[in-house]
Amino acid sequence: MAGRRGPDQPGRAITAFLLAVTLAAACVGQAPRTPSCPPARGELTVDDLPAGSSVLDCPAVGRVITHDGAGLAVPEPGTTVSVDALTADGSAHGFTLTVAADGTVSYAYEAARTEAVRGGRADAPAPCADAAYATAGRKEYGTYEWFLGDGRLPGGISRAEARRAFEDAVATITASRNDCGLDDRVAAKARYLATTSSKADIDRETRCMRPDGLSVWDTGDLGGDAVATTCSWSRPAPGGGPEELLEADVRFNTHDYAFTDDPSGACTRAYDLRSVATHEAGHVFGLGHSGPGHENLTMFASSFACSTSARTLGKGDVLGLRSLY
Ligand SMILES: [Zn+2]
Q1: Rounded to an integer, what distance in angstroms lies between the CA atom of residue 223 and that of residue 220?
Q2: How many angstroms does the Cα of residue 229 sit away from the middle of ligand 1?
Q3: Which is nearest to 286 in space by CA: 227, 226, 237, 220?
């Protein structure tokens, strides 16, 4: 009957056409899902890719999401990315985005500062009397191997000196060095590898970009608010517990701030490179910010010009590391 010509043939054609139109309409009918997908172009906010949405339903991997002065590129499924900015004014900029293995998105935000610090450091507990800490739900299970970028360094600081300062800062975390008489029970490990032409995967607007697998400490521009920023990427640990660190990059904002390795004497506005580095190393190893009212801890969200107090850890900083390692 295949070759049959008959009066019903045009009818079939019309039926097929209508069926195609119906199918097309059915596809358009799936459009109610698309309003939950972000706009196809440009930067997104967390509202454009809300918690519970999926990067598989709405292609979003690699798109930049901004929130509260920081940002990050949506990572591959099975990955968490965190941005932590250290500011000059006490404001906290940072958040965490997790893309589960099934593509589902979730966020974690630092508790927003709701009121100005009244007494600041003078009214806050002394570092050895302050047990406050926060952890970020991730840790380095092996050895944190890191590189030093080959770009420019803050005025007067040689690359060898910067390396020593950063190695000391990392060692302060891994050995939980403190002036409180607390013994070292922290089993964290780190190793400096080499200088590299690779960059920290952080852009000039304090946004964590696509990770390249190398943990790099370098300098650059982070926009006006951030003195330094750490971006970290992690994945679920096989045995449960804190996530496993994959990469952590640190950038110092040498575009907007002055740094010094010797903040004595005439220092008026420079930031102590070692104090800032110790704070950032705390993030690398999974510490979060200690929160308002804890200005004298190394993991307080703000840095203080010319102060060296964050070079060594306070009680809460040590307790936070002990809780992870
Ligand atoms: Zn911080």
Answers
A1: 9
A2: 7
A3: 237
DSSP 238: T
For ligand 1, the distance from its centroid to the CA atom of residue 93, given in whole angstroms, is: 8
Residue 87 CA to ligand 1 center (angstroms) comes to: 8
User: What CATH number does residue 194 fall under?
Assistant: 3.40.390.10
Interval between CA 30 and ligand 1 midpoint (Å)? 43
How far does the centroid of ligand 1 lie from the alpha carbon of residue 214, in Å?
A: 20
> 120: Cβ–Cβ under 8 A, 6 or more apart, which residues?
295
Expressed in angstroms and rounded, the spacing between residue 193 Cα and the centre of ligand 1 is 24
Place of tokens 């509202």: 47
Q: Are 185 and 176 in contact (CB under 8 A)?
A: yes
DSSP letter assigned to residue 55: T
Query: How far apart (Å, rounded) are the C-alpha atoms in residues 22 and 18?
Result: 6
Q: Tell me the pLDDT tens digit for each residue of 251-282.
A: 999 999 999 998 887 888 999 999 999 999 99
Q: Is residue 24 part of a domain?
A: no
Task: Give the tokens for residue 4.
Answer: 């049959």
State pTM to two decimals.
Answer: 0.87
The answer to whether residue 39 sits within a structural domain is: no
Residue-range definition of the domain harbouring residue 210: 44-110+122-324
Q: Report how many domains make up the chain.
A: 1
Q: For residue 25, is it within any domain?
A: no
pLDDT tens readout for residues 156-174: 799 999 999 999 999 999 9
Q: What DSSP state is assigned to residue 75?
A: P
